[in-house]
TrEMBL record:
Pfam families for the chain: AzlD
Name recorded for this polypeptide: AzlD domain-containing protein
Tree of life domain: Bacteria
Keywords: Membrane, Transmembrane, Transmembrane helix
InterPro entries: Brnchd-chn_aa_trnsp_AzlD
Claim: Transmembrane helix is one of the keywords in the record: yes
Transmembrane segments: 6-31, 43-64, 93-110
Amino acid sequence: MTESWWWVFLVIAVAGWLATDIWRWLGVIVGNRLDEDSEGLQWVRAVATALVMAVTAKLVVFPTGTIADAPLWLRAGAVGIGFVAFLIAGQRVIVCVVVSLVCLVSGLLIV
């Protein structure tokens, strides 16, 4: 191993930062010019929400790892209870996540 072994990690970090940071700055620049009520932005929000929901549904219906041991009714019930908590709490995502996790973990400990 050479004395300058760390330069590879530095190149990876800088290249990764540049590759993503450019798009972030372009998003900020372009995003400031968009009308929040425009049809295009509403479409982007709808697509982003649909993608998040698709991933969530996939995790609930076709889980992998430890959660695959939980029965479907427990996974779906945890999501449903979390959604109700989300609505009651004024649409706070963290409430939904925490309540869903508590329900799922509690159910796994009981089942």
